[in-house]
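Appendix B. Extra example for self-study. Work through it before the problem class; the solution is given directly after the inputs so you can check yourself.
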Amino acid sequence: AQSVTQLDSQVPVFEEAPVELRCNYSSSVSVYLFWYVQYPNQGLQLLLKYLSGSTLVKGINGFEAEFNKSQTSFHLRKPSVHISDTAEYFCAVRDGFQKLVFGTGTRLLVSP
Amino acid sequence: KAGVTQTPRYLIKTRGQQVTLSCSPISGHRSVSWYQQTPGQGLQFLFEYFSETQRNKGNFPGRFSGRQFSNSRSEMNVSTLELGDSALYLCASSLEQTDSPLHFGNGTRLTVT
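Solution. Structure tokens for the complete assembly:
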């Protein structure tokens, strides 16, 4: 069965600093990987997705993620964060027609 | 194009009552999934419907049920509500293809007292 591990429950960072949110997955077959962001009192918004091809995926709001098959990782990065990036970030994996499985989320706290 | 619409936005119910939540997917999306989000358990998959048929089901008791109509709109029902059912219920829609991402609504916040 597929599963997702987000190693950090909370990541504090100063504005304009780089950030990396870690995600590891397990699945027995080829997978599709996603990162979502959730702002308070809202649903989840898709940041980026990896389906196939280039392992470096660029998304919205300056975020990017790198798919590493050997390490079964899909870490999310941003070179310079803004206060407005404060939110909860979820990594998710799906194989075939199976359900989309989410990690437990990482709360990104950006301070001035 | 309009996004996923969930109604109502907030609900307060009493233990033992039942509740029905509604979800209107993005036009053209035939798959609808439901998730329960709580601080303790995170995002838990409830079920997925495609073309009026349940395609996947999570590990929730039979009190949780759903259905999908011919226009792809979906409803989920929770009977005999318990305090632990208090949560944000999220609906998401997607295209048929397995690599299509889910598009989420803003959720229904259910509080059971």
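Self-check: The two ends of chain A are 41 Å apart (CA to CA). If your reasoning did not lead you there, revisit section 3.
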